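I'd like us to work through together how a protein chain folds, taking it slowly. To get us started, please write out a protein record for me. Label the sequence line and the structure token line clearly, so we can match residues to local backbone shapes. Once you have written the record down, we can walk along the chain together.
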Amino acid sequence: MTASAARVPCTVVTGFLGAGKTTLIRHILENANGRRLAIIVNEFGDIGIDGEILKGCGIDACPEENIVELANGCLCCAVADDFVPALDQILALEPKVDHIIIETSGLALPKPLVQAFQWPSVKSRVTVDGVVAVVDGPALAAGKVASDLDALQAQRVSDDSLDHDDPVEEVFEDQIACADLVILSKSDLLDDVGSARAHAVIGEHLARSVKIVPTSQGKVDPSVLLGMGLAVEDDIENRKTNHDGELDHEHDDFDSFIVELQAVSNPDDLAKRVAAAADEENVLRVKGFVDVGGKPMRLLVQAVGPRVNHYYDRAWTADDDRRSRLVVIGLKGLNRPAIEQILVG
């Protein structure tokens, strides 16, 4: 195979809600070392918050036209409809891209996506360089698969009797089972005991020899993540998951909706309301852009359970739809009216 016909490597970045996938990818973009990169962002919800964050980077290694957003909520459920056209769009770019990074939604199972790389029309052009699972260190240390799941409070670090009927646990297990590298995020928030607990939880689900890399703020040398050269699509059948043998799957255990707000006057007050929604109504994740009265800058809000971060990411432009919109994600059965009442204030 000549260099011009060589398949483009793709890295699949998977991980649970709020684990730090976008932070990790942004760091890779900022330290591309001459690589021409493209991103496929698979967002859960009706507006692509993660894609907007990446597009706001202004990084030469990955210009805005190299970022393709999919909004179906589960890439592996709609590979034919969305993923292949996205690949076509990226592979047609000039100059040619050197590497593609696919950020799955927090709810996606990586195995069906990797299996799609076995299709003749895909396999001839791209290959899965490696699967990277990003996991939330402090959450694992506390016995939970994600810091935003109040329903999973039991300490399960050394407990082999995992509840496989829990869909959130199953998503976590499947992501780890398919990983070639595990990124332990927020490791700066862990002491030695917490780090040992987090490693133990990950180890319970690793059937192969896979390295665990502790990180803070997504700071990992891109050479660790890119260029594994594993052709994972050729080995994916050996990676056993909870959903093997299923013809299809759906994430009916989750709800997602958008709450529209008026312009806010005090971002800190909004952050308190977001935290209250997590505490009172078991909201897993809130993210969105907010208009702050009298401010030319756009406020980015991201929350993982009761942990809320907000900052001005860039100025509003004439092309922006200057509305305050928050995507709310949680387990099935969210009390939407109650959540809207809390967030609207």
